[in-house]
Design a protein that fits this description.
The protein is built from 24 helices and five strands. By secondary structure, it is mainly alpha-helical. It folds into three domains: 112 residues, HUPs (Rossmann fold); 164 residues, Alpha Horseshoe (Serine Threonine Protein Phosphatase 5, Tetratricopeptide repeat), CATH 1.25.40.80; 177 residues, DNA Cyclobutane Dipyrimidine Photolyase, subunit A, domain 3. It has a five-stranded parallel β-sheet. The longest helix has 24 residues. The two termini are 46 Å apart.
Amino acid sequence: MPPSPPNGRVVAVGGDKNAGQKRSSSKQAEARRWLFADQLGPHYLDSPDQPVLLIESQQVFRRRRFHRRKAHLVLSALRHRAAELGDQATFQQTRTYREGLPPDTSGLSVCAPTTYAARRLIGSLDVEMLPSRGYAVDEAQFADWAERRGGRKLLMEDFYRDVRKHHRLLLEGDGEPVGGRWNYDQDNREPPPKAPTLAQARGLDAPWWPEEDEIDEQVRADLDRWERDEGIQFLGEDGPRRFAVTRDEALKALESFVTTRLHDFGPYEDAILTDDRWMAHSLLSVPLNLGLLHPVEVAQRAERAYHEGDAGLASTEGFVRQVVGWRDYVWHVYWHFGDDYRRRNHLKARRKLPKWFAELDPDGEVGAKCLSSALASVREDGWAHHIPRLMVLGNWALQQGYDPVAVTDWFHRAFVDGYDWVMVPNVVGMALHADGGAMMTKPYAAGGAYINRMSDHCGGCRYNPKKRLGPDACPFTAGYWAFLDRNREEFANNHRMSRSYAGMGRLNDLEAVLEQERHRGASAP
């Protein structure tokens, strides 16, 4: 693979842009397919030999400071796809997307990109934009489902059941759910085992890891040069590539997960172990979000693992719900609520991200073990599973009143699987409740008791999750009460918050706790 050009020079890999016209008489297949870096799977082409355009835009990394691991994954995936396609692809390495386009774009087609900004770019060009691909149902199906609700609030669980029925996933012959229940969430909330890792507690196999090759070496060299010579900055630390970036790697990762780890996924999917960052999670979010796997094929393979006895029903259902339920729901919410959704700030949270949070605690200032561990996971790998994301990092940002736009941008840049469509609903709607309840019925705020129950962090922490006042008071526990007090007018009449406010009414030291939290400032807890 050629190195990135120093001055935006165009590098073409493969034949001329009209090569594919000799291979197919179909008008759609004749159009060269422009593939974005998250559209790299075979389902984004209309035929196996359709001509392809791939553009590696350096400007993406000039505009925003992404995690070094994320930059590596995206560039590695794009360059691996170009190498696989060979003469079938024209591969452009340029400063901007526009520089990589041919003078006449009328011969290009593209599947609808995954962001508003990219779709606006396509709209300004003479390029055929096809419907989006890579999701369990399309936007028209979601709009029809939302309309059929007749004004009732959108509920992920209802959407998920419709998707299951549409694709006949984990259903009996009469259309009823296997096992008689649609949702086994109650069976998937086990606290962590006493052992330091699931391998020790359950004999769990290690995750499947990819092997780096010469393309990865070239990507790393280019990123080093960008930092050294071109002033491009990255977040976090470099390290071995942990995630699949090719279709073949993605299929291997999927097969390894469903046959060796899926069975243990469910019970411990919400648990956190300090010394077991990966637990039994699939690590498939990266190849899914790069477009290398289709969510329905992933769900179908998990279903087959259940029928073949490799995984239990509760684990399989929980995983299927993540892949074709929650993931698709987030995708559709992103489009359903519109581009202005990202700027909602119902709770009027205005605080700037402190440097130790924004920079992933590089100096080890954070003493709260759960928070320092979550930040270290992101700093070192650009990844943490959904509970550290939501109940540690998101919970902290919610309690402290960090600006939702800044938090969304941070999650997007810092996580290897973070994309605009992923993080806007997950942060604005779920983690920060900045949409006023349009997506979730209550905020995901919790004190130290939850973290103590679902992790092994608190035992070795300088703070006591049962204390809310004093030098060893847990900042999450104290912060929880301060958050409730600050938003009393907003949540006091929410029936799902009634027990919390009743508990707050019984605190005889509330004013002292609130005064303590007012002085917390931006210092690391």
